[in-house]
Amino acid sequence: SLILLMAETKTEIISLLSDINREGISNVIAYLDKSDYFTAHCYHHHRYDGGLAEHSLGVYHEMRALAPELPDESCRIVALFHDICTSHMPGYDAVAHHHHGQRSVDLLDVLGLELHDDERLAISHHMHHVPSAEQSEQTKLWHYLHLCDRNNARE
After folding, report:
1. Tens of pLDDT along 31-49?
2. Best CA proximity match to 145, nearest among 45, 92, 95, 76
3. Which one of 25, 34, 64, 96 is most buried, by most CB atoms within 10 A?
4. C-alpha distances in Å from residue 76, one per residue of 56, 131, 132
């Protein structure tokens, strides 16, 4: 059932986040739990209760399958939080007025999560293709987040 799927998705996401040792991660986990992150839907795909969390988890699994050489912690962070701004919680909904990738980064900043430069770039620009002339080690995380986000959105 949908309720069981949402519960399993939540358990797996919390498990993936629980051993990340970063400043602010406990604030983000608390936000996920208090907001509608686990029950929200995406706007243009996965338009059903729990779709946002299921999509984010699917992006993570696809990133691990396509790019096992990428740091797992960075994959967890960018995949699970790239659309975090589409969840809602009173007091946090007006964090920023940018495009949604940057809004997600802004929300993570407000929550105090320590982000590496390549994670910040990947999340803020995940809707945009990485021009081949700009592809490098610094943009690898961005490239795979963009690719896996698009692939998963078609499922």
Report:
1. 999 999 998 765 565 556 7
2. 76
3. 25
4. 9, 24, 24
